[in-house]
Amino acid sequence: MNDNAPMRNPIGHRGSYQDYFSRMEKCEKEWEAHFADLPPPNKTCFMYSTIDEEKKFLLHQYGAGFELEAIISTLKIKVPRILNASDYVRIHRVPPQFQDYLLSGNSRLNFGYITLALLLLNDAEVLRQILLGVSPQKELKGYLFDLMLHAYDPLHQVATTYKKDKYLACWADPVLRVLALPAEERSAAMEKHMQSWPRIVSPYGYKEKLDSPPWFDGHSCDLAYEIALAASLYDIDDTAFRDHPYYPRDLADYYRQHIRHSRDQWRPLYVGADLPITLPPPPIKADLAKSKRKGIARWVELVADGDIDATEAVLDATGKPRKIHDLQTLLHNLAESDLAIYADLKDDETLEQQASDLSEKRGLGPFEGSPGPPYGPARCEATLAAWSAWLGERGYLLIDIDDKDSDWHAIVVNTVFHPELQQLSEQLGIPVRLHGADLNPNQE
């Protein structure tokens, strides 16, 4: 590691990286010395664990500021080792222990790994070996991942349907929406998405600042690899967002300078995978004015804005009690379906993300609160106030739920059905109030 090279990880701690690479070097020597003496099951477990560790090593090299040529050299060493480890596991595992494939399309780790490979390597054989490890299992596939691989290799299959994955949809669907636009509109749309990217991925590894001692996770970092890959393979002008600290701009630059007009010269500009983008369909909704649901089922239906799948998911988890005695469970299940705010008192990032998810689920588009400072509870209050006004302009009301704890709890309802929700809440014993108003009567 070059002590003078600038780190690409904006919150990186050089000492933490040095400790990591020293530790990995030591571990590798120890395992080489003792691997042959391990019992067969331990050998299989070890080989399986190395697959992701090798990928992480590459991403840590990038975050630490290693020269791209050094990372390319590491890729050429690591790829055969990853494949050998996978072959060993496939031969020696006891089914259903471990997976047969190295690359799942629903993993940010794998997206980072494949981005380094596709944007840096001009070696067709090494890339062919990498693609041999892509999982064909439907539950491990990802639409955006397959589109990117198809843009590189038109023989790579893109499925007609994919399993719903809330974790994946959070950060992959916005990129799909950008790629679905006409080519001339993609740059501005990607810039807007890049502005929201830190908030979107904050639950999945991104950190704006270290929240623990630097020697603990000062080498951990999530970067917008999927955006660099999409911008490169779809020839999107990244001028407007290339200076964002979490955008891997030198990967895109390297690709355009060394790869685009050699390895990928066959592909016309701006076409990417040359396939129409299939965006996630809107939820199937019941006609709230004609619904015959009653009690808690009707209450959840109103909170879900008629979304049939979301309503059924919550009811399957909570049942249909006449009175709500376990409000925490109800709120948790609502939040799991993006139907409620459920955030810690100080967690302004989660609260804003939930508000945006909840708004998008209703087809209102993403909500973006004002950036801090302030942070913590004060920013949570400001976000809820701004969101309440934003919802009001679109025909919806923000409803607080008081669970007598310190967390933030809220739901959204169409203005037309607010009186009915209020009445049902009183019958069910759910303490609600219009945001900024007093609790409903008899529920103090």
Task: Characterise the protein shown here.
This protein has 444 residues and is mainly α. It folds into 2 domains: 14-155 and 165-209 and 221-259, no CATH class; 295-434, no CATH class. Helix content is 52%, strand content 4%. The protein has 17 helices and 4 strands. Strands 1-3-2-4 form a 4-stranded antiparallel sheet, sandwiched between helices. A hairpin with a 6-residue loop joins strand 2 and strand 3. Helix 4 (108-120) crosses helix 10 (225-233), helix 7 packs antiparallel against helix 8 (183-201) and helix 10 (225-233) runs parallel beside helix 11. The longest helix is centred in the first third of the chain and has 25 residues, at 40-64. It is globular, with a radius of gyration of 25 Å. Mean pLDDT is 89; it is low at 210-216 and 439-444.
Task: Sum this structure up briefly.
The protein has 444 residues and is mainly α. It contains 17 helices and four strands.
Low-confidence stretches: 210-216, 439-444
Helicity range: 40-55%
Task: Tell me the structural class.
Answer: mainly alpha
Shape: globular
Strand % is under 5%
- Please give the count of helices: 17
Number of strands: 4
Largest sheet: 4 strands, antiparallel
Across the major sheet, the strand order is 1-3-2-4
Q: Summarize model confidence as the mean pLDDT.
A: 89
Secondary-structure element order, N to C:
HHHHHHHHHHHHHHEHHEEHE
State the end-to-end distance. Answer: 61 Å
Radius of gyration: 25 Å
The total domain count is: 2
